[in-house]
Design goal:
Blueprint: E1 6-10, H1 18-30, E2 36-40, H2 42-51, H3 55-64, H4 74-80, H5 86-97, E3 111-118, E4 123-128, H6 134-139, E5 150-152, E6 155-159, H7 168-173, E7 178-182, H8 196-205, H9 210-217, H10 219-235, E8 239-242, H11 257-273, H12 275-281
Parallel strand pairs: 1-2, 1-7, 2-3, 7-8
Antiparallel strand pairs: 3-4, 3-6, 5-6
Helix pairs in contact: 1-2, 1-3, 1-11, 3-11, 8-9
Length: 286
Amino acid sequence: MEKIKTSLVLEGGGLRGAYTAGALSWLIDQGIEFDSSYGISTGAVHLTNFLMKSKKDLKDFSVYHITDKRILGPKAILRCGKLVDYDYLFDQIMTKELNFDISSLKDCKGEGFIGVYDLSEGKTRYLSTRQITMKQLEASTSLPILGVIVNCDGKELMDGGITDMIPIRKSAADGCNRHLIITTKPYDYVRKPAKPAIVWLMKKVYPQCDNISKDYKIRHLNYVDQINFIRDLEEKNEAVYVYPSKTSKVTRLGGTSEELGELFELGYSDMEARRDKIFALLGKNV
């Protein structure tokens, strides 16, 4: 008889991650845990709060704090020269206002992994949440061009979503055979190819890494591969794929607290609507 190894797979999505936060709150309410969990970009931050069973932080971070004008926009540009001030987000909001204690992750049940793009290696690699630092978590969310390179132990790190928008391949490679996948984009979403100007800019901004512009050029193809892989797993009853059932005004970088709150509640209700399938996937009684 096949041994079941369950996994939770989280896409990024910037402010749209409020949907993920709502979905994870539902999982906490059901007492559901996983053998392994994987998060990319904003999904990595929400994953850490899920592992620590921090329902309050899931909502506070994704609905209220993330709209702080000092994080995103003109104030961020004036402070750090970038559109997004990741240092303020992690040093002030998470550490001081939410009292986020990353050291507590080492004692959490189930192991999590966050994806980071390593500029020195020109590829995405995964770090265990039991050993990560706050700077590594920050790196996992730092978008190219909009954010900064985060230096950690001699490595130059950024958002792993450059190649792995949905870390389903990593989950399967680690031997997981029952996957709960939560994305922030609708089922029929089509990722467009990167504009040539963006690919050119990648070469200029990151001359130390030849691969990053090449990876960005085929990013849309990687996304198609990841979605098709998920749908194949669904057909084999090895995955449940959860995505927003309604459209939202929230974008990667824009949204009001009211809109984010609605998206959070949508994530929760969409999970409830898939309750039977989720419980069946994980071999649990409804």
